[in-house]
């Protein structure tokens, strides 16, 4: 019998997203152990009741209490966790979606939900995932550099960290001449043409040995879709099964399924797109998308009448197979 462990927390600001995801998971499933990873890479066995009662989602951190058992750092996780453990990964961002925690668990032959370390590494890197999309015939916004032709240089530009999630670190410029040189030349930042249009997100899940693209969700935001708009603002609307042509809706699902396969994702993923009225562009794939009550994937599951308990059970079944 496998011992189920919910691993949450993290080492960067997406730790707050992870806590909200873990809280929702804990409300729906009785895990054997609740394991918190703090920003110093230390692990603590915590109480389920404390996690469920945590409030101010996406704003307040999880508090370590004196009675929690400290079991060492995450790199030595095999010393303090049973060999027959299986992890549900509710981590996001650095050391969650970048393949690092997956690599550690793989090294010690632990089973875990979600994609492999290799797949997560590619998904987390926008340049690598963009290349995979292009290689598979999925359009992406054009990359802009100082060597781009004049017509591209005059376009509005969006800059993003090559690695990262939760729409953090995104900036907008009216043209390439407005971008500071240190940003334009930074190998850790990608500069793309800004596509004006409607933004959509679409999850893919594996259950009963089959892959299923979920119903698309449209993201409607008065401002640019950053961290606050994504998790805190009341002005952002996420419309499940939006009013779009059936052909566009089908294309979003087809591209989501295609990129899930091309990136070798496992269990579940969520991909983001933008439609300019004529063409659908791929933006990125989240290998461990948020699972809080407000999360897009959760809304898609709800629309498809898939309970959280069934979703968690299916993911454990996939990971243990």
Outline, from the CA principal axes?
Answer: globular
Specify the CATH class of the largest domain.
Alpha Beta
According to CATH, the fold-level topology of the largest domain is: D-amino Acid Aminotransferase, Chain A, domain 1
**On the 0-100 scale, what is the average pLDDT?**
91
Could you give the order of strands across the largest sheet? 4-3-2-1-5-6
Keywords:
D-alanine-D-alanine ligase activity, EC 6.3.2.4, single chain, Rossmann fold, cytoplasm, 321 residues, alpha+beta, 30% helix, cell wall biogenesis/degradation
General description of the model:
By secondary structure, the protein is α+β, with helices and mostly antiparallel strands. The chain is globular, with a radius of gyration of 20 Å. The mean pLDDT is 91. Helices cover 30% and strands 25% of the residues. It folds into three domains: 110 residues, Rossmann fold (3-Layer(aba) Sandwich); 143 residues, ATP-grasp fold, B domain (D-amino Acid Aminotransferase, Chain A, domain 1), CATH 3.30.470; 44 residues, no CATH class. Belongs to the D-alanine--D-alanine ligase family. Its cofactor is Mn(2+); Mg(2+). This is D-alanine--D-alanine ligase. It is an enzyme of class 6 (ligase).
């Amino acid at each position: 019998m496998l011992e189920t462990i919910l691993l949450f927390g993290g080492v960067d600001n997406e730790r707050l997203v992870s806590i909200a995801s873990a809280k929702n998971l804990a409300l729906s499933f009785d895990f054997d152990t609740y394991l918190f990873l703090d920003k110093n890479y230390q692990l603590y066995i915590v109480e389920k009741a404390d996690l469920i009662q945590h409030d101010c989602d996406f704003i307040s951190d999880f508090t370590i209490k004196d009675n929690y058992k400290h079991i060492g750092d995450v790199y030595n996780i095999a010393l303090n966790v049973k060999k027959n453990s299986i992890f549900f990964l509710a981590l996001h961002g650095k050391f969650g979606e970048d393949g690092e925690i997956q690599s550690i668990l793989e090294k010690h032959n632990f089973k875990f939900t979600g994609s492999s370390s290799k797949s997560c590494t590619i998904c987390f890197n926008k340049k690598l995932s963009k290349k995979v999309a292009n290689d598979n015939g999925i359009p992406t916004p054009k990359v802009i550099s100082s060597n781009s032709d004049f017509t591209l240089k005059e376009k509005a530009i969006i800059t993003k960290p090559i690695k990262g999630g939760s729409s953090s670190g995104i900036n907008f410029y009216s043209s390439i001449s407005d971008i500071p040189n240190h940003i334009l030349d930074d190998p850790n930042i990608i500069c793309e043409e800004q596509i004006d249009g409607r933004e959509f997100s679409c999850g893919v899940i594996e259950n009963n040995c089959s892959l299923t693209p979920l119903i698309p969700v449209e993201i409607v935001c008065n401002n640019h879709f950053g961290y606050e708009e994504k998790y805190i603002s009341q002005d952002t609307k996420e419309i499940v099964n939006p009013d779009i042509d059936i052909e566009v809706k089908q294309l979003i699902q087809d591209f989501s399924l295609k990129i899930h396969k091309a990136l070798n994702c496992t269990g579940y993923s969520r991909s983001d797109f933008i439609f300019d009225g004529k063409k659908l562009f791929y933006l990125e794939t989240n290998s461990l998308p948020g699972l809080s009550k407000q999360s897009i994937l959760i809304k898609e599951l709800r629309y498809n009448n898939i309970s959280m308990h069934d979703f968690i059970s299916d993911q454990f079944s996939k990971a243990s197979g």
